[in-house]
């Protein structure tokens, strides 16, 4: 520190704060939000803290200063978090028989005209047909606005109650032996549904989930206009509701004897409690296994946000993972292929 200029000393103090913040944030994925709702809000800043520490690391390396060790050590401690943010190379396996699964939050097929682009339902269906997934999971699905039931012989479309604006859907080329809904107890449309698919001589249970929204307007101008205390409080409450929903889902998952896939819109990041809680040691994040880049799944102009996931039973081989830059909703569709 003595040999540093005044400017570099100030920079190192900022570096120390960012490194400490990142180190503490590693723990947030293991702290139930209901215990410390406001603290859990900090998990949303993990991607930014990672990038800031990478910039500090690069700065000190360029200047040939040993202060680079601070951010390097903190990043190495949380290397799993770093790779949750970005994958450097795509892994593609092939097998003669594959099952392709697509998850897509379709934003009610533009029912409320969030975009001026015309014929959104037809374009979404055209995109789905073009990629031809064997199983399609949709969130914010409005009933009967598409012909997907004509494309897929087996389907389960469900709304929690008659007043729900939208629901969830599972479409399949394979027979459904059983299907059901968890009907989360909270008010609103968020929910999880499942279907048991007969695939050759095996049965696979697929959960389609849509956890509680944090109700954050993503544009910077909207965030500036928002009252900060109300915003943080609302996000903390949303995290607590997500925890309760994830616990409801986990009970159902743990009672399942079939190989299982959990997929859908988590409305949270890979640094969150609910992600770590559901993934545990039994599931593989398909993006981490076979994806590339940031795996962006939500339209956010200033940051590549991944909030849609496919957690695959570790007994299943993941052949590929894709995130499609298709701006027909506020979410991008994701798809994985597994060996059957």
In short:
Keywords: Endonuclease, Exonuclease, Hydrolase, Membrane, Nuclease, Transmembrane, Transmembrane helix. By secondary structure, this protein is α+β, with helices and mostly antiparallel strands.
Q: What is the fold-level CATH name, i.e. the topology of the largest domain? A: Deoxyribonuclease I, Chain A
What is the strand arrangement across the widest sheet? Answer: 3-4-2-1-12-11
- The CATH architecture designation of the largest domain is 4-Layer Sandwich
What kind of sheet is the major sheet? Answer: 6 strands, mixed
CATH class of the largest domain: Alpha Beta
Q: Structurally, how many domains make up the residues?
A: 2
Rg, Å, rounded: 21 Å
Task: Give the % helix.
Answer: 25-40%
How many strands in all? 12
Number of helices: 11
> What overall form do the CA principal axes indicate?
globular
* Alpha-beta classification: alpha+beta
Strand content: 15-25%
Order of helices and strands: HHHHHEHEHEEEEEHHEHEHEEE
Write out the CATH superfamily name of the largest domain: Endonuclease/exonuclease/phosphatase
Poorly predicted ranges: 220-224
Return the average pLDDT rounded to an integer: 90
For the record, give the distance between the C-alpha atoms at the N and C termini, rounded to a whole number.
Answer: 58 Å
Protein name: Metal-dependent hydrolase, endonuclease/exonuclease/phosphatase family
Keywords: Endonuclease, Exonuclease, Hydrolase, Membrane, Nuclease, Transmembrane, Transmembrane helix
Pfam families: Exo_endo_phos
Organism: Salegentibacter echinorum
């Amino acid at each position: 520190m003595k040999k540093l200029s005044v400017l570099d000393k100030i920079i190192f103090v900022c570096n120390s704060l960012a490194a400490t913040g990142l180190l503490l944030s590693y723990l947030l994925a293991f702290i139930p939000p209901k215990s410390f709702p406001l603290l859990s809000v900090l998990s949303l800043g993990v991607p930014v803290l990672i990038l800031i520490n990478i910039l500090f690391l690069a700065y000190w390396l360029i200047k040939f200063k040993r202060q680079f060790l601070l951010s390097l050590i903190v990043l190495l401690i949380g290397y799993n978090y770093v790779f949750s943010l970005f994958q450097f190379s795509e892994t593609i396996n092939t097998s003669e028989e594959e099952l392709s699964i697509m998850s897509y939050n379709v934003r009610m097929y533009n029912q409320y005209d969030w975009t001026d682009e015309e014929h959104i339902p037809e374009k979404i269906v055209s995109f789905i047909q073009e990629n031809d997934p064997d199983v399609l999971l949709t969130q914010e699905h409005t009933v009967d606005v598409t012909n997907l039931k004509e494309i897929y012989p087996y389907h389960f479309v469900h709304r929690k109650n008659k007043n729900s604006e939208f629901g969830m859907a599972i479409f399949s080329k394979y027979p459904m032996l059983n299907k059901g809904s968890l009907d989360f107890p909270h008010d609103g449309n968020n929910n999880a549904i499942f279907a048991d698919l007969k695939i050759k001589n095996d049965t696979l249970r697929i959960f389609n989930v849509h956890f509680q929204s944090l109700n954050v307007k993503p544009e910077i101008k909207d965030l500036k206009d928002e009252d900060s205390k109300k915003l943080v409080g609302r996000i903390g409450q949303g995290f607590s509701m997500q925890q309760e929903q994830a616990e409801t889902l986990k009970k159902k998952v743990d009672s399942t004897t079939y190989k299982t896939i959990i997929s859908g819109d988590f409305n949270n990041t890979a640094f969150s409690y609910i992600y770590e809680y559901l993934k545990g040691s039994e599931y593989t994040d398909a993006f981490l296994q076979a994806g590339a880049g940031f795996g962006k799944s939500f339209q956010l102009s200033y940051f590549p946000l991944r909030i849609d996931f496919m957690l695959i039973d570790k007994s299943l081989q993941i052949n590929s993972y894709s995130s499609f830059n298709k701006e027909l909703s506020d979410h991008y569709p994701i798809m994985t292929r597994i060996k059957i």
